[in-house]
Design goal:
Blueprint lengths: L3 E2 L12 E4 L10 E4 L7 E7 L6 E2 L1 H13 L4 E6 L2 E2 L1 H8 L4 E5 L1 H11 L21
Parallel strand pairs: 4-6, 5-7, 6-8
Antiparallel strand pairs: 1-2, 2-3, 3-4
Helix pairs in contact: 1-2
């Protein structure tokens, strides 16, 4: 997540385009925050893990993120990974009071393509199908 101004399409950066990177030593288990309004009253906290395809984010990582959210008195967050989540992590996130949205590598790629973030369009193909109703 880039600090400062982000795209204004609503996917990231909030309604005012404000996103801040927090990650690093002493980040308290949170990598970034997105302000959903100009006053910063509505915030979404983000944790991101860039892992290889063979790595899995486990329940422990989600629990640590939830602990970090509670430490900030926050009840919602987004955990993003370039890999995937273990079944235990998915089950844990689904059954706790804190709302944690999990975005795995496949979903992240879908969102990036859908919103044109961090991707470049190379070629477009047109696929046609015969309209059988036309010939009746």
């Amino acid at each position: 997540m880039r600090a400062g101004r982000a795209r204004r399409d609503g996917l990231h950066g909030g309604t005012d385009g404000q996103a801040r990177r927090i990650g690093g030593t002493g980040d308290g288990g949170v990598d970034g925050v997105i302000d959903q309004d100009k006053l910063g009253l509505q915030r979404i906290y983000v944790q991101a893990k860039r892992y290889g395809a063979d790595n899995t984010v486990g329940r422990e990582a989600i629990q640590a993120f939830v602990g970090a959210l509670h430490g900030r008195n926050v009840t919602q967050g987004i955990f993003i990974t370039t890999s995937r989540f273990s079944p235990g992590a998915v089950d844990y996130a689904r059954n706790i009071g804190t709302r944690v949205v999990l975005i795995d590598g496949a979903r992240l790629a879908e969102l990036m393509i859908s919103y044109g973030i961090g991707v470049q369009q190379r070629e477009t193909y047109r696929v046609v199908d015969i309209d059988e109703d036309y010939f009746e």
